[in-house]
Amino acid sequence: MKKILLLDWSFEWRFYILDALKELNVDVYVVLPELRDQTEYFQKIFIIENLYENPKSHFDEINNIVRSNDIDAIYTSEDELIMLSSLIMEENNLLEINSSLVNICMDKFLLRKNLENKGVEMPLYQELTTIEELEAFLSINTDYPFILKPLDGNFSDGTVKINNKNEIIKAWKESAKSLINSPSQSKKLIIEEFLGEDNSVISCEVLIQNKQIFLVGLTKETFSMYKSKDNIEKFKYDFIEVPANISPKIKKLIYQHVISIIQVLNLNNMTLHVEYKIKNNIPYLIEVNPRMAGGLIPYLYKRSLGIDLSLLSIKIALNIPINNKDLKYNKEEFTIIKFINHSYNGVINHISTDYYVPDNELLRLTMSEGDEYNQGEVFGIGYYIFDFNNDNEKNKKIETMMNNLKLEIVNKDDK
Asked: What CA–CA distance (Å, rounded) separates 286 from 109?
């Protein structure tokens, strides 16, 4: 029986990974930053309390775990731990993978430099280490707005919109806050042109195994805007839809681009989540994440199309061949997750719902009375998942659910 080591895992947000591991019938070991979500299915749990503080510093400790337990594969879906995972896999020849290529994918600036003049459309961009560099860039490029974000951030953490020169200082301070949690500890930001008011991103879910490229499908992630305390515009998740309902022409262009990126970078034996913005019917590359799509996206794929992204991604890590049956759609439905947000921050004084949830829908409130809510929380106050056939049905379901949600948030100082 093969052995796999998970670098962090949570039943709350990663339940589908455990389901896939059970189906593959492997022995599972796990490294956690704290003891939580304990399950009898794990062979052994290793606690590294400061796992996310400079993850590469834990190389020797985790490498010893791999060797002393004869681990066959390492798996993580956490951005902060991807580089560490690839380095240990490379050190132990667990999978034919190049950690330097993983690093290029994680670094938005390096990624763009490696893809320049390769036929891949990208927004205007520049790497930044100081606010003076930002001011110099905006003194030359004045076609506002622009997007400022960490070089390797995730879940829109630290992503802000700069609408004019008066927002430069505040925007820098707001975005730079997120560098504390930077996956690579790079301490750098990137500025790029704003690609239109349609606050949605189309991502392509891709598998690469032994140079074979499997294009699984397209996901649509939609954001809404909110303002920070300093009146700077930031992004928060609103919807995620699977599959993305876009034109065949754009779908074809994205697939062509993704194949080009993989070939130019010579990527192999990994799962990719490649994000695009669409402007004037042209897809512009935003980022390449060398991991499976995060959050509940894998669950949406299994529910909507019958494709188990988790199982396929873990098969790659274990070097188990992917077959045509794995990639065949056995369903064809639209599935959406609607995140429940609020228009201002505060303490939840009351939260309840009278909405009757049918067996084929899922409504979950992730926060409770007394919890402090801040706009930009990755999963909001909760989420609502359901299937739909058209936009009218989708909008009606959301309206009905929201009308039956009772939510009262009060100012923290008034509580």
From this structure: 11
Q: Which two tokens stand for residue 235?
A: 């992004």
Selection from 155, 235, 245 nearest residue 199 by Cα: 235
- Residue labelled with tokens 């199309």: 305
291, 79 Cβ separation under 8 angstroms: yes
For residue 256, give every residue at least 6 positions away whose Cβ sits within 8 Å of its Cβ, in sequence order, or none. none
Structure tokens at 2: 């093969």
Digit-by-digit pLDDT tens for the chain (415 residues) are 899 999 999 888 789 999 999 999 999 999 999 988 778 899 999 999 999 988 999 999 999 999 999 999 999 999 889 999 999 999 999 988 889 999 999 888 899 999 998 888 999 999 998 899 999 999 999 999 999 988 776 556 788 999 999 999 999 988 887 766 555 555 788 899 999 878 899 999 999 999 999 999 999 999 988 888 888 888 888 999 999 999 999 999 999 999 999 999 999 999 999 999 999 999 999 999 999 998 899 999 999 999 999 999 999 999 999 987 888 887 778 999 999 998 888 999 999 999 899 999 999 999 999 999 988 877 789 999 999 999 999 999 999 999 999 999 988 655 5
Residue from 35, 37, 36, 31 nearest 4 by CA: 31
Between CA 278 and CA 200 the distance in angstroms is: 8
State how far the Cα of 373 lies from the Cα of 157, in Å rounded to an integer: 16
The span from the CA of 21 to the CA of 379, in Å, is 25
Whole-number Å distance between alpha carbons of 384 and 401: 8
User: What does the chain come to in residues?
Assistant: 415
pTM: 0.92
Q: Tokens standing for 55?
A: 């993850």
Question: Strand 42-47 to strand 27-32: parallel, antiparallel, or no bridges (unpaired)?
Answer: parallel
Q: Measure the CA–CA gap between 77 and 55, rounded to whole angstroms.
A: 14
Q: Does the N-terminal peptide bond of residue 145 adopt cis geometry, omega within 30 degrees of 0?
A: yes
CB 334 within 8 A of CB 242: yes
Backbone phi and psi for residue 384, each to the nearest 5 degrees, phi listed first: -130, 120
Q: E strands within 228-289? A: 233-242, 270-279, 282-289
Tokens 């500025």: give the residue.
191
Q: Which helix (H) or strand (E) holds 29?
A: strand 27-32
Task: Supply the DSSP symbol for 24.
Answer: H
For residues 102 and 82, the answer to whether their CB atoms sit within 8 Å is yes
